[in-house]
């Protein structure tokens, strides 16, 4: 991407360089520059994480609209940074997001007053995000089509990291031939396909994405795997529909705090007393924070990351928390691997999606990588049992 300064036209027909003294004298630009300096980010600097402004309205837009202004102005080509992941890692580590909070009060009010993940609204994220296109996601993801954090403890590449994650889940659940596994939010069936092939279990998965269900069925053809296009709240109403194990990998982020308790009640009614439930979810450090407005509008409508305390509160008297495993730093490597795949595949999709989508998607992947690098966002695998495991639970190595 060309990082050269852009000339801006004046009403008299002359132009002004983006690096000119007149532009740099604006109060909004000075305010933004002062903030960024706290994170060692410079406007017009030459380092990969520095900010290159192309449009003189950028600073005003960011100050007025906060996260939304930052993201939308990037989508519109008003500014760039050669390494957005490093840009975001630095500004989040410096907690600059807490100093520019435009739009967050409204987001907080919406979350308090509305059930943003009601039965009626729950399908929106499937239509907006997961139905973007199966070919698109196949180009970005690994061969398993796992759209969740990989496990990089010993992995050298994305494929190995996702294989390690799937196997870790199967071992944590203690899967054995003949068992029945429920996958709440199954995506394209990466876990079910792996568990059926490697561990000899039969699987049922639920998703709210028609595209995922269609491609998943094709990928799992011939295996004891069933896809159901349905909301998780409908599960287990038939008391005969029981499972030995339940997993939910990367779906709890869409449940919403008003529905956490219902979610755990659903999982419990699907399990026998000696069952196990693995919850794999992104999480946040602080309860009081709310979904980023830009992410909510453009990437994951109605998303709501839980704090660890919110998970344990909602599970109280329903499940015993047996183990909590945090490998959130691995999401940084996963997202950057997806970004490399996305950039490499983009020429195939450019005419279909357009440049503004490319900038939006690149911003999403790199900004999220920055949040995990700054450790402001986590990834937990929580093991839960209905009654407590006699002698305790031992996490497999």
UniProtKB/TrEMBL annotation:
Residues 1-24 are annotated as: Disordered. One of its GO terms (molecular function) is methyltransferase activity. It comes from the Bacteria. Keywords: Lipid metabolism, Methyltransferase, S-adenosyl-L-methionine, Transferase. One of its GO terms (biological process) is lipid biosynthetic process. The keyword Thylakoid does not apply. Transmembrane segments: none annotated. The active site is at 368. InterPro entries: CFA/CMAS, CMAS, SAM-dependent_MTases_sf. Belongs to the CFA/CMAS family. This is Cyclopropane-fatty-acyl-phospholipid synthase. It comes from Azoarcus indigens. The lineage of its organism: Bacteria, Pseudomonadati, Pseudomonadota, Betaproteobacteria, Rhodocyclales.
